[in-house]
Amino acid sequence: MHLDDIAQHKVFKVAPDGSLDLALVLMEEHGIRHLPVVEDGSLVGMLSDRDLLCTIGGPGRGEREAPATPFPAGPTRVAHVMSRPVRHLAPEDPVARAARLMLREKISAVPLVRDGALVGLVTETDVLRCVATADRLEHDASWRFEKVEDHMTTHVFRIESGELPYAAWRLMHRKAIQHLLVVNGSDVVGIVSDRDIRGWFSGARRNGAEACEPSPTTLVRDIMTTPIRTVGSATPLANAASQMAQLKIGALPVHRSGRVVGVISETDLLKRLVSALEHTQ
């Protein structure tokens, strides 16, 4: 199976001189996490929501666009923070090549380029659907029925529901993770993702507020997802992959005997897919 078979062909794009604030709102409005950066018809960079959060979630807008100076005090344009050179593949490349590239480069989207022009985009979620659907795999797919508990991440980071969203983002950034379990004492009451944080920042932008100084009335409990979707520790990987793809979420807490014992993520599933493909070659 080729990447063109699973790719998104309607791709939202931004220009290098585009505003970071507008890019953030564009991602939130369309529920996307990546924006190819195109100039004169050529792909020149990639912008992810984490690139935006690292920038907009740091210095405040007032600091980045200081009116007393003729130049911005920090990044304000897409070109300032986009990733380059761009890791891209061809539409005819196999799905396995994209999965390996994502794991090796720690990226979650790969643009497809033909004759120098952007023709599509493949994300972790697109690849994840291959795990959920056996007929899309070219090799033995029996591993899809292995248990979630054998591939989940057991060290799970948590944050109190009464913390500020910015504290949640700092922890995610420091630990290079995308999800935190939200607790109230010893009870798990929800889950918060970097996408939830992005939505909070985006709302602040629409209201003209400072994203770096959140309102003390906005807490993690106000932006978390609840009730949380979970899977049992004996759940097959294919079932977990199907849930993630359908719900468009990147991770599911794993429970055993009523207690959360880990998290299974898109990255965990991607690792197993790559491992399976390597053993069949």
Protein model, in words:
Mean pLDDT is 84; it is low at 58-73 and 208-214. The longest helix has 14 residues, at 266-279. The strands form four sheets. Strands 5-6-7 form a three-stranded mixed β-sheet. A three-stranded mixed β-sheet has the order 8-9-10. Strand 5, helix 7 (165-175) and strand 6 form a beta-alpha-beta unit. The chain has two domains: 3-136, Roll (CBS-domain), CATH 3.10.580; 145-279, CBS-domain, CATH 3.10.580. It is built from eleven helices and ten strands. Helix content is 36%, strand content 20%. With 281 residues, it is an alpha/beta fold.
Beta-strand percentage?
Answer: 15-25%
The rounded distance between the terminal residues' Cα atoms is 15 Å
Q: Determine the CATH topology of the largest domain.
A: CBS-domain
**Lateral strand order in the biggest sheet:** 5-6-7
Protein structure class? alpha/beta
Uncertain runs with pLDDT below 50, 5 residues or more?
58-73, 208-214
Please state the average pLDDT score.
84
Number of helices: 11
Task: Name the overall outline.
Answer: flat
Radius of gyration: 20 Å
